[in-house]
Amino acid sequence: MKKTFFLILILAFSIFSSACSSKSNLPVKKLVLVNSEGKEISVKAEIASTFKERQNGFMFRQKIPDGTGMLFIFEEEQVLDFWMKNTPHPLSIAYIDKNGRIRDILDMTPYSLENVTSSTKVLYALEVPQGWYGKVNVKVGDRLKLDF
């Protein structure tokens, strides 16, 4: 009985530890944003292109450094809803259409279950640390180079 309980406890701890890990197995790509002045800004982004990858996102990540992010790629353009369930780090999200044009940039509150919705149909969403878009002078109307 004690042995079984101990094994269950170890298994539960292993699952919890892997869920809370800051490491990711997602592919990472250097993305380039082009602002209205023509300046190119790089961001090193994890690519989430499957349902499960998009569902997990940045959950449980304690720290997301400036200059990094996660690009969510969808199969078709749609109005998107994101939330911050189990996500402790404050983020900003850019909703991006099929042509690479940024249609919205919105801030998201850690752990919030409130939907953050795109204003129009989009194909991509790029999450970065909150405030990063402002720091690098990227705004609505700027674009993501789609050569990744």
Structure in words:
The protein is an alpha+beta fold. The protein is built from 3 helices and 9 strands, in the order H-E-E-H-E-E-E-E-E-E-H-E. The strands form 2 sheets. It has a 7-stranded mixed beta sheet. The N and C termini lie far apart (54 Å).
Concise synopsis of the structure shown:
Helices cover 20% and strands 36% of the residues. The chain is α+β, with helices and mostly antiparallel strands.
Descriptors:
two-stranded antiparallel ribbon; alpha+beta; about 150 residues; disordered N terminus; seven-stranded mixed beta sheet; globular
Figure out the total of helices: 3
Order of SSEs, N→C? HEEHEEEEEEHE
Describe the main β-sheet briefly: 7 strands, mixed
Helix content: 10-25%
Strand content: 35-45%
Low-confidence stretches: 2-22
Shape: globular
Output the strand order for the largest sheet. 6-5-8-3-2-1-9
Q: What class would the helix/strand composition place it in?
A: alpha+beta
Radius of gyration: 17 Å
Integer average pLDDT? 88
Give the terminus-to-terminus CA distance: 54 Å
Q: Tally of extended strands?
A: 9
